[in-house]
Amino acid sequence: MQVLWLELRDFRNYATAELELASDGLTVVHGDNGEGKTNLIEAIGWLATLASFRGAPNEALVRSGATAAVIRSEADRDGRRITLEAELPSTGAPTVLVNRQRLRRSRDLLGALRVSVFSPDDLALVKGGPSERRRLLDEALVALHPRHAETQSAVERVLRQRATLLRQAGGRLTPEIASTLDVWDAKLAEHGTALAGARRELVSSLEPAVAKAYDQVAAASDRVVLRYVSSWGDDLAAALAAARADDIRRGVTTVGPHRDDLALSIAELPARTHASQGEQRSLALSLRLGVHTAVTEATESPPVLLLDDVFSELDPERSAALTAHLPAGQAILTTAGPLPPGAAPAKTVRIIEGRIV
Question: What is the pLDDT of residues 179-234, one digit of tens each?
Fold first, then answer.
């Protein structure tokens, strides 16, 4: 998988921009802070996922004073050219074209362009709450097997319906509420068990790749362990029944895959509370690289690796180790500073005030 070229119009701080990328190896995007480096890879990430990896709403991607932003790109997937185009209006829904055909459903885009993204915000994968880690697992599942998107949607749909019912109950379990809860609990047990099972299998398969990436990036042999932590044990239906009175009283669903977590440890100690800042950053990057490796092996084609300001998160030794062990395929890296010794980019571009020079 490679991105061959990128064209922007009225996207973030770019009035217009065109960029040809190295089809293989590393493309480095240099620029001072605030010049627009991250905006370039944000545009590529948006075309792959229909969302900003920075969490920005679509209207924030439109250049100030413009009515719409436009992103165009051409990718090569296993020798087949794919043209991707998107128009993001300042108000309303975006329009997306794949090979000149309008995209009707977002899930139809899955696999057209695969990317792996690391950004400074990824430190939250280690230091933040469980929701960030669950999102990592669920995004990886869809990248590996798009069918998991439907399972995730089913779980989210049932949780919304159950939440509405619990609010309506107002703390009272009437026969009517109990009967309807039975229906939603059965659906949540079915889809939630499937989702948690897929996550567990993923965690088991990811652990060796994450541990290897950590050894390379951190230049350490500390044992890294990933463990899926369930909020409900082995029987979700039984757990929901046991928690029903508490759910009615609190008005929320207290057990299920939406409450699960991914426990991370280094040298047998919890990474969130006992690892140093450098170890936490190395582990966060290793999680992304582990997923990248898993998707590469499953699809036999490496996703485009987008590394945003990664050197600001790593010390010089870890930065050098990362560039020495970059996975095969296309990588695009932004940086405000110099490259570590030994780095050999296939292409380097510089950004000044939203212009490619």
Answer: 999 999 999 999 999 999 999 999 999 999 999 999 999 888 889 999 999 989 88
Structure tokens given for 28: 């480095």
Query: Around Cβ 282, how many Cβ atoms within 10 Å?
Result: 31
Burial class (CB in 10 A: 0-12, 13-18, 19+), 68: buried
Q: Is the pLDDT of residue 106 over 80?
A: no
Residue 209, beta-bridge partner list: none
Query: How far apart are the C-alpha atoms of 178 and 297, rounded to whole Å?
Result: 46
Look at residue 158 and tell me whether its pLDDT is greater than 80. yes
Q: How many CB atoms lie within 10 A of CB 280?
A: 20
Cα separation, 103 vs 95, in Å, equals 8
The answer to whether 292 and 326 are in contact (CB under 8 A) is: no
DSSP code of residue 162: H
H or E segment and range at residue 95:
strand 95-98
Residues 228 and 204: their CA atoms lie apart, in Å, by: 9
C-alpha separations of 278 from 127, 220, 284, 342 in Å: 12, 12, 10, 21
Written in H, E and C, the secondary structure of 116-148 is EEECHHHHHHHHCCHHHHHHHHHHHHHHHCCCH
Q: Which two tokens stand for residue 328?
A: 């095969």
Q: How many CB atoms within 10 Å of residue 271?
A: 22
Question: For residue 107, is pLDDT > 80?
Answer: no
Instruction: State which H helix or E strand residue 10 sits in.
Output: strand 2-11
Asked if residues 254 and 176 have their Cβ atoms less than 8 Å apart, the reply is no
* Chain-centroid distance, C-alpha 296: 15
| Token pair belonging to 346 | 């296939």
Q: What is the pLDDT of residue 357?
A: 86
CB 98 within 8 A of CB 109: yes
The vertex-236 CA angle with 230 and 242, nearest 5°, equals: 105
